[in-house]
Amino acid sequence: MQVTELSFSSLSEYLQFCPLKYYFRKVLHLEPEFLSAEMIYGSGFHKAVEAYFRAQLENKTVSADELMVLFCKSFEDPKIRYNGTGKQEMIDEAFILIKLVMDLPIGKVLGVEVPITIPVSKDFQIIGYIDLVTEENGKRMITDWKTCKKRPNPADVAQNMQLSTYNLAYPDADLRIAAVLKQKKPAVEFYPTSRTYDQRKRVVKTFCAVKQAIEANQWYPREGWWCDGCGYQSQCRKEY
Ligand code: SF4
Fold first, then answer.
1. How far apart are CA 218 and CA 195, in angstroms?
2. Which of 35, 47, 48, 93 is least surrounded by CB atoms within 10 angstroms?
3. 5-239 sits in which CATH class?
4. Which intervals hold domain PD-(D/E)XK endonuclease-like (predicted)?
5. How many angstroms is it from 74 CA to the middle of ligand 1?
6. Distance between CA atoms of 19 and 210, rounded to whole angstroms?
């Protein structure tokens, strides 16, 4: 199999989570047995935030209730599996968090889900979408939304490969993670960071290494906390 392009989400699925899951999902195109409610929460929240900033970009208004309709749509799939937190509890929490996002001091919106393409060689490119590009204090700012239970630690922010990837496309832009904290007291916090030339070079080399591993059919299980939310557990047990 020749890999001609790789997105950060594919890289992350292979490298930061599990190569075998990548194989089941992206190569064999197997349907998962279930979908993790936490994952659905994250993607539903992203859709709601995207709709909010897209409305700003188009000089339209959208209410928190309308954004919640979008969020709740994600929970219609009968294959969702809940683990501890129920659907209504998640919806109530997301409503608070959406309102916090709407109150954030964000500059002028320049782009939402902005596509990026970084040519690496004549037959390989890095692709992706940037959540939000704004103009703040006369500078371009790139924001990546992360729904999480814990505050990101400084080392994770300083080395986050997703922001390094975006920085390849916009080396002069400021970068930050917007952490959407699903805690007892929900909060949304910014974590600014920057990248060096060496970090950009390193991330390109990492993309090339993962491309080679996929082309060489390097599939193996990488177990961790993420296995709880993996819909390929039975298939995984059959293979290993
Ligand atoms: S159960 Fe864990 S190790 Fe197995 S495929 Fe899923 S994520 Fe990978």
1. 30
2. 47
3. alpha beta
4. 6-237
5. 23
6. 10
